[in-house]
């Protein structure tokens, strides 16, 4: 096992550090910014169904559901196709409406999650075309979908999903950009610009990993907290959900992720000097809005840890702690901004003596409902 961990103390840490590589592996042969090439080999016969879809329904559970939420924003922005993101367990039991022209994307690291598999079969029985986005080759969801794309992240052993999440984002974003290009819903110039940015993501993730030592120091200070709030807007809203999920899964600290603006409809009541609030506040179209949200938290004495874009001059004056990540297009930012959150949860869990690779009560793959 020590050999399999490749010198890392835990599989989770190894898998976090593998991400520059796993994201590149996921892009290999599929994306080439200099030629404008973008092609997912597993999506051929039904590619037109996706391009001409009236609606896309994404079904998933857990972390995979969070990647679906990011993908919702990407598909809607660039493809102008309405997207619905569904918890597989809810979708399958409520007699969902599936029309001709709807396509389903089932997202699952293991490809064996019982609810996702059942939801997908239900949609299929109602005539939907199913695309599978799975990591495990030959898994049930991969085999039973019409077409799909593998995430090629390599085996993920840690129960808390890390590299599978970023690989899912990579595949789903490639799918969206391919569709947008085919539909002509983005300009050639914007498309090429995004491919160039996309190709730089592995190097930017690598830069985030260099923040490890700083994050260890922050983890020391917050390891005994009993609650955490994670807030983000736009593309970083699902990242807030994912950051909170990572922390609660492995450190057993209660954590909630919320859209930052929604805070005033509830979570703001929880804020006092004991409450660490992680803002994912990178420079994007909702930057000014999130700055006001930080002020609202500061006014109530919350302790702010902010993930910001390199060179941000404003937020460091307001937050107790800042973690700077490289800038990129906002649609690609979740691939970058989630990395420090993975590290934060990992270190806090280790400092609390938790079994990070096999947290209590959790399974890597939930094959019963
Ligand atoms: C379990 C795992 C999570 C995972 C979820 C969905 O809860 O612990 O890490 O995100 O299942 O799994 P899937 O294999 O379908 O992505």
TrEMBL record:
**What is this enzyme's catalytic activity, as reactions?**
D-fructose 6-phosphate + L-glutamine = D-glucosamine 6-phosphate + L-glutamate
Q: Which GO terms describe its molecular function?
A: glutamine-fructose-6-phosphate transaminase (isomerizing) activity
Highest taxon listed in the record's lineage: Bacteria
Q: What is its main location?
A: cytoplasm
Give UniProt keywords alphabetically. Aminotransferase, Cytoplasm, Glutamine amidotransferase, Repeat, Transferase
What is the main EC category here? transferase
Chain segments annotated as coiled-coil in the UniProt record: none
Cellular location of this protein?
Answer: Cytoplasm
| Domain SIS residues, every copy | 46-185, 218-359
Question: Known EC number(s)?
Answer: 2.6.1.16
Q: Where is the active site?
A: 364 (for fru-6p isomerization activity)
The subunit structure is: Homodimer.
Function as written in the Swiss-Prot or TrEMBL entry: Catalyzes the first step in hexosamine metabolism, converting fructose-6P into glucosamine-6P using glutamine as a nitrogen source.
Stated name of the protein:
Glutamine--fructose-6-phosphate aminotransferase [isomerizing]
Source gene? Answer: glmS
Full-protein residues shown here are 243 to 611 of 611
